[in-house]
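Example record

The entry below shows one chain as it appears in the dataset: sequence first, then structure tokens.
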Amino acid sequence: MGKIELRLYGNDVRLETLKGREVAELIKSFEATLYAIAKRDFPEALEDELFISLIEVKNESAAYGFLPQISKFLLPAYASLTLAINTGTYDAIPASGIKGLQAVSKIIRKQECSLEFKLDGEIQATIDQFTKIEIPDSAYLSGVTTIYPIVKRTGGDKPTIVLQLYDEKDYIYVKADEETTTFLAHKLYQQVGLSGKATWDRETKRIVKFEIHRVLDYQKTSITESFNKIRQAIGTYWDEVDDIEDALFRDKPSDE
């Protein structure tokens, strides 16, 4: 049948002791974890197919039953998840999936209870308030790079700069010294050049962390203006050359 069930128990936890937002966060985070695993393992799956439906709520402490929309995608994801929990090794789970599981774990710690992961009535894995769920270092790549984000917000008690890369929806929250934060505050909603150390999610290739080393002397210009500046800078060096294309490629190695 493939019915998935989450059962919270211990510390007198019951349906009536859980707040509505906690139940919603539990279900949303659990679904997000399964989605992250299934989307990685089955890229051909449509996003609208990767969800679970709540079909049962039981007051056995607090139990929630679900049916996966497409079993061939979500049941393998559920198996990968429970295996990771049982072994305590999360290298095979995408970082976004682990974050979803961490959100589930946060509720468990707050309630000081335990959570069973079941499949067709059989317990597959269990976590409690002492279970450690951490994203492994192998989930990330890091290195020095240059980015050209838009400054969305600055300030706060602990100077923070909120950046957005032009091709991504998510924001990057960067801690910086007061001087850098004050300087970038004058660049609000503008594109800036920043050199520093970036950390990428290995699966999505998105930057999840950035450390500013230097603010570049950068000003966004049009392509036409950029080529005009290049021509002004190097144009005179080619005044005596009749065939620029031949000069550039005459020494190009043969493909043979």
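Notes for this example: The chain has two domains: 4-135, 139-215. The longest strand covers residues 207-215.
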